[in-house]
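Tutorial sheet, problem 5. The two components below are modelled jointly, 681 residues in total.
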Amino acid sequence: MPPRTLFDKVWDAHTVRTLENGQTQLFIGTHLIHEVTSPQAFGMLDDLGLAVRMPERTFATVDHIVPTDVREEPFADELADQMIKALRANCERHGITYFDLHSGLQGIVHMVGPEQGITQPGSTIACGDSHTSTHGAFGAIAFGIGTSQVRDVLATQTLAMSRPKVRRIEVNGTLPPGVYAKDVILHIIRTLGVNGGIGYAYEYAGDVFDRMSMEERMTVCNMSIEGGARCGYVNPDQTTIDYLEGRPYAPQGAEWEAAVERWRALASDDGAHYDDVTVIDAADIAPTVTWGINPGQAIAIDEDVPHPDRVRPEERAGVLEALAHMKLQGGAPIRGTKVDVAFLGSCTNARLSDFREVAAVLRGRRVAPGVQAIAVPGSTLVKEACEREGIDRVLIDAGFEWRAAGCSMCLAMNPDKLVGDQLCASSSNRNFKGRQGSATGRTVLMSPVMVAAAAVAGVVADAREVFGTAEAVSA
Amino acid sequence: MAAIAPVRTVVGRGVVVHGDDIDTDRIIPARFLRCVTFDDLAEGLFVDVRFDEDGRQTGHPLDAPERAGATVMVSGRNFGCGSSREHAPQALARAGFRAVIAGSFAEIFFGNATTLGMVCLALGDADLAAVQAAVDADAAAELVIDVDEASVRVAGHTYRGHLPDTARSALVKGSYDPLAELLGADAAIGAVADALPYVRAGGAAR
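Model answer (structure tokens):
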């Protein structure tokens, strides 16, 4: 057999057949659902009189609409209350495993899968959420789907999919001190564009990804979709195996040994064909922040915001629109921009390692007056782990609000919202107009440590300066 | 399952929503996703750019009286990027749109829209600009989209665009909702499942 990429191996093993229009009928090994994009799918099944084909292969949790302060039901928001009740009823009726609000295991769906060992190398994973690409960190082919496709997976455990091309993105060398996984993916998106990945799966490879922890790999894969790539993955290695060992749904005993052997054979073969290869030097990546209204509108912290007269003509209208919304001056530094809210959270950056890094720099420091700072762990397990380590105390002492797990202010479907044109330094993934709950709200995306720096300084700031030497803040 | 109607042409008046990278949060803000059906989504369509904070109309083209009843939306590159929410094409469909013409489409939006029988036709930059100008100039201008040819005719000119063969074939044959065909492979699905060690073992499920 000719050398193949991991993508080829996984796709081929899950191919049921070619459909009439040329798409692939692809078997979905693991299906994740949540309260926002599933109720209509269950409704469609009912209308058609169809059952769930393999209920044991779907897992559910509740994340988007849950309040992060008062968690008692019924929720104050009647619509949100209706949604959690619908999810609970649908799971019960169809025999689907559901990590409920007070199960101790609830969290953002893209946190729960890995934590439980449900996310495994070589599997296909679908979920009605674009950040399903997160699970690619394990060498899974994982992508977001629409609600009609949630219906398709429930009814058949398969999807009609077009096979994407594969682009290998190598980041080689060593990241400078104070540069994090978030900066790497923001740099990649800035380089390749928000639509550069359309039609591609991204394979992240090279020294930097080889050295990354699973949590860092998840941060990168999570934002593949912001670059237009529906899925992104890292080849599984010892780091992957070590992470999964002993997790509740990971294989056990003899099955574990067999699984490890299979996983090791999954990595892309030497000489495999890629449709495109992009190589980036790690030394070129700096702490990166967005200045505009899509994640590709990003600059290094010490760069100036683009001036509309100095960009390519086809970019000018977009730059002007972004500057107007962000109330920023073209050609001026992004540093020093006043911050109203600091948000630590989301499926991109709300894992234990993120909070550890933040606590290390925040100890003994205070959030600037006038800044509302909120910390929302991605899962209940992360929340408890932080509390065992005293991280919650450090954040609370610094002036952060310490909340319960959910999507929260990443997309503001729960009560956590920006007000008016507040500017939010955010560890989340999208800076779209209105994304954080106010039509005129402004989002500046950055790494968690940079959010901490912005919270302390009260302005967009370089964490390496706010917290002393670069060495002091590097992972 | 009921047969679905082929979509060979879309004929109607247009409205231009200018700009590249129109994301699905813009098309339908997240607060409108607090629902368990798609029934009432039309009211949220582009709502945050159509109304200011005091609820006054901002003069958005969607609210121009002469654009009422438009069935073809024309926009820029990378339309529908961001969130996978099917609520976005559902809101467009419930507001009466049968087709979107853009420079390019984000992948998940494209799939979601096509499954609803909504035509997503991509045009090159110059042709897109010409179609935008024609539609902006005349609210009464009729657009005729020929799905099989992947073309649109407006103001006396025909513009050839791009529609992937998979979508074109599915639209003209009336198989754009794949569920019936997916259901037809039950034995083959079982065979693939049985051949996957992680599935056979019960895999993640215990």
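Marking note: The CA atoms of residues 411 and 436 of chain A lie 5 Å apart. Full credit if you identified this.
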